[in-house]
Amino acid sequence: MKLGIVGLPNVGKSTLFNSLTKAGAESANYPFCTIEPNVGVVTVPDERLNVLGEMYHTKKIIPAAIEFVDIAGLVKGASKGEGLGNQFLANIREVDAIVHVVRCFEDSNIVHVDGNIAPLRDIETINLELVFSDIEILERRIAKTVKLSRNDKTAAKELALLERLKAHLEDGRLAKSFETDDEEEMEWLTGYNLLTYKPVIFAANVKEDDLADDGAGNEGVQKVREYAASEGFEVFVVCAQIEQEIAELEEDEKKMFLEDLGLKESGLEKLIKASYRILGLISYLTAGEPEVRAWTIKKGTKAPAAAGKIHTDFERGFIRAEVVAYDDLIACGSHNAAKEKGLVRLEGKDYVVQDGDIMLFRFNV
Ligand SMILES: Nc1nc2c(ncn2[C@@H]2O[C@H](COP(=O)(O)OP(=O)(O)OP(=O)(O)O)[C@@H](O)[C@H]2O)c(=O)[nH]1
Ligand SMILES: [Mg+2]
Asked: What pTM was computed for the model?
């Protein structure tokens, strides 16, 4: 899973990126601090892995991982070369979802490129730049398709789609709200990798005081929430600066620090949960003495495709899977005990893998 971070300059993107990835990217109080993209990987916290690790006396625990890409800030007119331009958006064309950092904190010491705190205006600015960047992609695609379309029906159909899509974006709307039930069109639309077709998670960056009530008392956050709800996007409230401090603490110190702030989980945990939700992801697990590991799949994935995450041979030569639900395994205390109780099932190729399933694949190639 890959997430790309966007937002205006100086809103806390790199601060958040650092707190998530501990990658130590440069962050400073001036716009356009980030020029070259920063890439970092974080592991997905999953308490179940540690429990399994103890049960199996495991040598190695491998959690699922998420890659973050932190890029330069966008300003109004970036598509026309303002600020650092918009070329760097190419670095996030391939991400699964976008984390859009919106400044919702007042601090006269931290420069806001547009002069004052106005979350909805800022969102609009960024959205428009993403839309313009998508239009550029479509225009290139149109130029390629025009010639082909003269004596190729499929190309002509695609050209018509491209023109409709472009008109939609030129109205200032996101590709995500473009409607079609034609399967071929849907496939094309997905294939263009348009930024405004991707799911968005807003990170409302607030000051420390706004954390305890999850931003309820912050008017800007409320507006972001309303907007996000209308588009079907997620919001999480975070204080990037505090997150950075939390990230530097040891595990037990972290818990105490969060409790003091009246929080149950860190921003990273909130973000990961939101990403899983928005992308429809779950984890299945594999467990044994050599390693305990989490594997990320889409909800609804069947056993062979899930096996393919481990190795393509597992999918190609899939015979069946031995499955036990995490809660059953823990309740029984061991794999053998679960087996005796009949809780270890044999499942075939139509089995839909569930979150927390502990899987063992039988295959033959
Ligand atoms: N008060 C306060 N300051 C913050 C917070 N988050 C970030 N900052 C400060 O804002 C400034 C800019 O932060 P960066 O993380 O570099 O911002 P950016 O969005 O990556 O900026 P560019 O790379 O220039 O686009 C730094 O001085 C941060 O310390 C926050 O939650 N509260
Ligand atoms: Mg930055």
From this structure: 0.90
